[in-house]
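Sample entry copied in:
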Amino acid sequence: MDWTWYLFRFDGRIGRAKFWLAGLIILCWMVFMAAIAVAFGAGSFAFSISDIFKVFDPDTYGAPSRADLPLILTKLMGTPLFTWVFAATFVKRLHDRGKSAWWLLAYFVMPGLFKQFEERLPDSYWIAPIALACFVLPLAGFVETCFLRGTRGPNRFGPDPLAENDSLPMPPARRWEQQGALEIVPPHASPPGGMHVKRDA
């Protein structure tokens, strides 16, 4: 498998199994980098989706203390990497469902930004439908990318990733060949010669 294409490129299609595998790879990377951060002095450490959208929030910027440097440096290295891999595999999974990459905005970006700035939005009736949409859309995206099969056969984004497995021929059933199972035994003293069935047939 081409790992560069699989984890970092946005073209083509992948099935559900490879999408779950990408999530497992991201999780392992997160655990590894969190262990490094803790080893270098970070008291507690965790990656979260909110780290992606804090980049757009001015309130998250401030003068960091010396104790925060391991945490900040690790997140500066890890968050862009995890975001890129997630986006690349998510888009390829959308392609497998026959949808364009623009659905990433509806399923992930818009709900994430709303969650980041939710507490600073005014109390108004027009916020309610937006909040409902930002709750339903990520759930719909999760179900679609993680559990639903892609379009059967090729689509505008590439060939079906499951077509190769679906088209594998079934091995033929083994038949008992009478000619190969019988052998002519030359006559000996006992038992008499004649036609016998092979022991391993």
